[in-house]
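Something for you to look into today, if you have time. Could you write out one complete protein record for me, on any chain you like? The space below this message is yours for that.
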Amino acid sequence: MRKINLFMLVIALGVLFLSFSTSKSSKDRPEERLGWKLGAQAYTFRLFSFAEALDKLDSCNLGYVEAYPGQTIGAGSTEKMGYQLSSEGRRLVKKLLKEKGVTLHAFGVVGAQDAEEWDKVFAFAKDMGIQVINVEPSDAHLDIVSRLCDKYQIKAALHNHPEPSKYWNPEVVLKSLEGRSKLMGAAADVGHWMRSGLDPIACLKQLEGHIFHLHFKDLNEFGNKKAHDVHWGTGKLPLQGVIDELKRQKFKGMLSAEYEYNWENSKKDVCVSVANFRKLIK
C-alpha cells in the first residue's frame, strides 16, 4: 500500500509540475496561445556569430530564430550558414539550437541562380527542419520555387523590401502567387511597407490567407526609406491595430523581430520591444 501511495504521489507531482510549466510558458510567452511563434531574424545580430545570436535570443526569452545565409556559425566553426554547410556544420547548428531550446523555423531572405541552386536551398531547409523559406525570386524562377514547395513540402514566402524592389507592393505578391503552389505565400515586412508609404494594416488585409511569416519592426518615421528602428510601440507602426488584424485573420506562424539599428547593442532594444509586444498581447 505504501508503494502504491508513493507511486501515486510521484504521478501527482509530475502532473503538477507539468501544469506549472505550461502555465508559466503561457504567462511568459502569451503569444503562443494564439499560435504565434515570436522570435528574431538572426540578421538583427549580423555583427555576431549564429551561436552568439542564439545567446541573445535566449536572453530575450525568444524560442524561435530565422537564420540568414552567410552568417558565421561560431562556437569554434568558421563555416557560414546556408546550403553549403558541411555535415559537421549542420550537426553543430542542430546542437547549438538544442542547447538553447531554440527552434530554427525560417530561413531567408534567399535567392538562387538557377533551378539546381534552388533545389539545394530547399534540400538544406528540409535537412534542418526549416518550415518557411523567405524568398525574392525573379519571375522566371517563380514556377521553380512552386514545384520545390510541393516536392519538399516546405513553405516559401515572398518577402517585400521597400520600393522599388520587386515585391514591395502586396498587389505584386498576389499576382505572383496566382496559379502556384498553396505552399507559396507572403513574408510580410511591416517596416518596409512603412518605408514605402504603405499602410501596414491595409497591406495585411490585402494578403489575408496568404501570410506565412512576418518581419516585425517599428520605425521613427513613416514614408521615409531612411527611417530607423525604434522600440515597438513607440514609433509610427500602429502596433495594436496590427496585432488586432493578425488576430482577426487567425494568423498562425512566426513573427521575426528584425531590429536594424544600434547594431552593436541591439539585444536590449529587442528585449524591450518583445516586452512591449507581450504586454499588449496579454
